[in-house]
Amino acid sequence: MSNQMTAKFRQCDIALPNQCILKCKMCNFWQNDLAYEDPGWLGVEEYKRILSEIRDFVDDPFCVSFGGGEPLLNDKLLEAAKICRDLNFVTSFPTNAYLIDQAMAEKIAAAEISSIGISLDSLDRRTHDLLRGKDGCWEKAVSAISLLKKYRPALSVNILAVIMGVNLGGIIELARWVYAHPDLHGIVFQAIQKPFNTSSPDNWFELAEYAELWPSDRSAVNAVIDELIALRRSRDRGFKICNPVSQLEVFKLYFSNPKGFVKPRRCHLADNVIRLDSFGNVIACEQMEFLGSAKEANIRGILYSSKARKIMSSIHNCAKNCYHLVNCFYDGESK
Ligand code: SF4
Ligand code: SF4
User: How many whole angstroms separate alpha carbon 178 and alpha carbon 246?
Assistant: First the structure.
């Protein structure tokens, strides 16, 4: 988030409420009450106003990415996506696919979503269901691929896979399966991080309760990532592996020394991305003050305020060894 009016914002990340129906071992969002609705959460009309304000100062292509929790649990998702479509924004969201049946696939098609990431950690259904905490998740994820493409052939469907201890042995097989799958655009890998919504300490990966998540065999994890790098270099379109080689190299550093791992560059967290929580707060980094409330003020004014300038300066100078920059907010070379 540069503070000159010439700044080029490429993306807006909209966080929907952190509610979920699965019980993943790497995330405790499912502990939040599914029936709860906060009166402070943004409504469809507020999304419409804020997105229209954003339209006034961004160029195409501009992507709006929705997150959660499970985004499909929230009925505002597809309404907000339609608003984005009308504003000529590209849209995307990740999903565990558990709610995708024919009716949902038709609704997603009607909203003309551009890209979806389906969580699938293993081709072994027992491993995936064990990690995701619910029987039938694997089946839902795999059958959603063709269902989504049936109703919206232009949709880009990607697999999102977290590299963990328990699925490490199947990672290459999964990458090869995606490469051969005619309906899949690609696969995005993430390195397992401290489970979301827990109070676990920073050395969580040393705790017995997470033994199956953390890949403790360093030579095995290095061998798998080296093979991913070789595959990525072996074919056009990088064998459909979306992570750049430089990020896969960062995964190796991170897995070999998570305590000593050093973020690749200065934190760029909000350089080009506008981040909005479910209450309309404009966020740069969760560990810092909000820039302002898009409910109460024009978002353009918030992004270019002197307060935003101060917070951005703190972000650029942040010395924390932050794991955010390994996965979703990796911004190294795109090789
Ligand atoms: S990781 Fe995703 S699917 Fe799993 S509980 Fe969290 S939000 Fe739900
Ligand atoms: S804690 Fe620091 S390094 Fe991590 S995301 Fe925030 S500003 Fe960036």
Answer: 21
